[in-house]
Amino acid sequence: MRIATFNANSIRMRLPVILPWLTEHSPDVLAVQETKVQDSDFPVGPFAELGYHCVFKGQKSYNGVALISREPLADVRSGFNWDDAVHSPRLIWGRMGSVWIINTYVPQGRDRESEHYAGKLQWLRDFHSMLQREFTSDQLIVWLGDLNVAPESMDVYDPKGLDGHVCFNAELTELFNAVCAWGFHDVFRHHRPNPGEFSYFDYRGATIQRNHGWRIDHILGTRAMLTRSQDAWIDLEPRKRAEPKPSDHTFMCADFDV
DNA sequence: ATGGTAGTAGAACTA
After folding, report:
1. Which residue among A57, A138, A154, A157 has its CA within the 20 to 30 Å range from the CA of A83?
2. In this predicted structure, what is the pLDDT of residue A83?
3. Could you tell me the residue range of the domain that residue A63 belongs to?
4. Three-state secondary structure call for residue A93
5. Structural domain count, chain A
């Protein structure tokens, strides 16, 4: 089973990137964040032509998540509570056979002093509660998406200069590790232990050429998924190209013997 | 360099 994640920064603008990538890499499931489209306007047709099914929860302009899969997903839910209007465009999950796929777009937080950062921390606590309520850690579960957390110093290009950022600080790391202690392991890092591997590069400042990136997109798995994982990688090619226009994030992908 | 770029909007906002 091949599972991938991609923050599209508008799924409609990114169709020329996503559709060829699906054809080339044939993931069983692609989790997308920042679709930036309300459900009535989601571009299901182009994915159907490639044989992919879509479930999604979005809104105008901001946020929005989707799961794009070869086979239809079962037991699809979004938000912390079914169809919750506030949280749904950031959380959608479903089941593919015995494997649960949880796709999240964790709030970025804007700045440390804002209520948005406090909301980010609360969002992670609510997510933790959802895990405890809905799942057990002995299940086959993948948690992936744009988590807006760089867990370790090696996950940012300048750990000294960026320390304290809303996506890279000790308080956030502690909370993130507490959520992961429920039962999630870093599948990407397990297979790629070396520094310098990033999934996000700011549009501003030729960051991709200098490898000035962040690893804030993640593929995590319960112990049972980690032991079944075979490989994981980041595909930088779509971010490097000028055309078709890239997202500021790129694809992370993992293979599992399931 | 409190800048820079991109997307959604159709002026600011979010990232």
Report:
1. A138
2. 63
3. 2-256
4. strand
5. 1
